[in-house]
Amino acid sequence: MGKTFQKIHACSAGTFPKDGNKISQWVRANGGEYSPTVTPQVTHLITTLEAYKKNIKPVREAKELKHIKIVTFDWLEDSLLDKGRKPRRVTKYLLNTIVGNEEKKQQQQQATKKSADAKARAKKTGATKRLPGRIKNPDPFGKATARFKAGTAAGKGDTLGAMVLVYITVSTLTSKS
């Protein structure tokens, strides 16, 4: 009899595709305790993704108790097969993390699709994005100045560039005379 699950009090819920009926035997054979129902002593609820999403009664009870870690069947398998003979860290097996990551991926996909649709509409209609009140670089030759890169936009109230251009023009005219 091993002691891999010495501090583990497990419970299981849901329909497992393989070896689900052996969970209690494996936990007990490795030094842990098993309960057929969720109790305050339970530390880990082993369940399926479908059962978690359906929020079945054992899952709701485990969520209410808050200290119970709701994990996948993979956590149990990986912990039993681990060479260190210790339970694996539950971080990547927690179902609330797995479901949360799935939701984030869906939101990102939707946002990407929306932005792609908007770009396609803009391209189709020939619309370009131009901010109101913007003027082109005041340098008539399109050369870069100290404040602007060549061909960049300047703010409407930004008169410093124009003043520099006027100063340069005036100073060149006066030096030639």
UniProtKB/TrEMBL annotation:
As recorded in UniProt, coiled-coil segments are none
Q: Which InterPro entries match?
A: BRCT_dom, BRCT_dom_sf, CellCycle_DNARepair_Reg
Q: Which residue ranges are recorded for the region named Disordered?
A: 103-143
Stretches with biased composition (Basic residues) = 121-133
This protein's source sits in the domain of life called Eukaryota
The record places domain BRCT at 1-80
Under which name does UniProt file this protein? Answer: BRCT domain-containing protein
Q: What is the lineage of its organism?
A: Eukaryota, Fungi, Dikarya, Ascomycota, Pezizomycotina
